[in-house]
Amino acid sequence: MPSASPDFAKAALASGPFRSVSRLSFDSLAPSSSLNVTPLVADAVGAQWRDLEDFERSLVLEARDVAHLSSAIDWLVNQDPFESIGTGIPEEAVSALGVLPPPLAADILDLATRFDAIMHAGAVRIRLELVVTNSCRKIHSDYTDLRLITTYAGPGTQVLPMGAEKLESNLWSVPAGWVGLFKGRLFGEGHSACLHRSPPAADLRVRRLVLVIDTPSLANENSSV
After folding, report:
1. Which of 7, 60, 161, 165 makes a 20 to 30 Å CA pair with 52?
2. Element (H or E) spanning 33, and its range?
3. In a structure prediction context, what are the per-residue pLDDT tens digits for the chain, which is 225 residues long?
4. Domain ranges within the chain, ordered by starting residue
């Protein structure tokens, strides 16, 4: 993790306890045709996190706007590539990432706290990474129970809608800022794992700022996002 700028570091020390970031109302969400949301993916958009219990879903998406984080995101995207990892209860895991701009730290804590609440693991593993290389291009599912991925900047994780043929042409990119809850192969009997892959950042000449939250005991270092 790069050292925080003096202004951000000063703000972090003075900010006090992290505050939850307000979220869009699920009732107000509707897939936009301008996003080219396929019918199979559209069913996941706007679903409550509790809809993970639905056997017909391999993915739950939370559409949201992260414009309020733009300054923090832009600052991190312009750093050297990095990977920061924190494990423990949500507050400890976020703190272990290093000094972050307060709004971004608050957003990560909010997501980690919600993830911990639904997984009941007593801890989370958080990875914040600036990706500039090509990850695995293979369409795959993760050997885990559940994985939260949100791409703060750059192209998002590419998803294969449930029931779609395993072809690159069927992949759909999760918009930047949106939260994806990806079921893994260990999520539960009768549930399908979400097939996805990481976009080739090097080939596309883009920089991706990606957040991943896992159950610590099942985290896989080599999984692409």
Report:
1. 165
2. none
3. 655 544 443 443 333 322 222 222 222 223 333 334 444 455 555 557 878 889 989 999 999 999 999 999 999 999 999 999 999 999 999 999 999 999 999 999 999 999 999 998 899 999 999 988 777 778 989 999 999 999 999 999 999 988 889 999 999 999 999 999 999 999 999 999 999 998 876 677 778 999 999 999 876 655 556
4. 6-11+35-218
Structure token pair of residue 8: 């951000």
Closest CA to 170 of 178, 179, 161: 161
> Residues 152, 78: contact at Cβ < 8 Å?
no
3-state secondary structure of 197: strand
Give the C-alpha distances (Å, rounded to integers) separating 70 from 42, 65, 180.
26, 10, 20
CA angle 117, 119, 120 (to 5 degrees): 70
**Contact indicator for 221, 143 with CB cutoff of 8 Å:** no
Question: How far is 117 from 148, CA to CA, in rounded Å?
Answer: 13
Give the bridge partners for 127, in sequence order. 85, 212
What is the distance between the alpha carbons of residues 97 and 41, in angstroms, rounded to a whole number? 32
Q: The domain at 6-11+35-218 falls in which architecture?
A: Sandwich (2.60)
Place of tokens 């290093």: 98
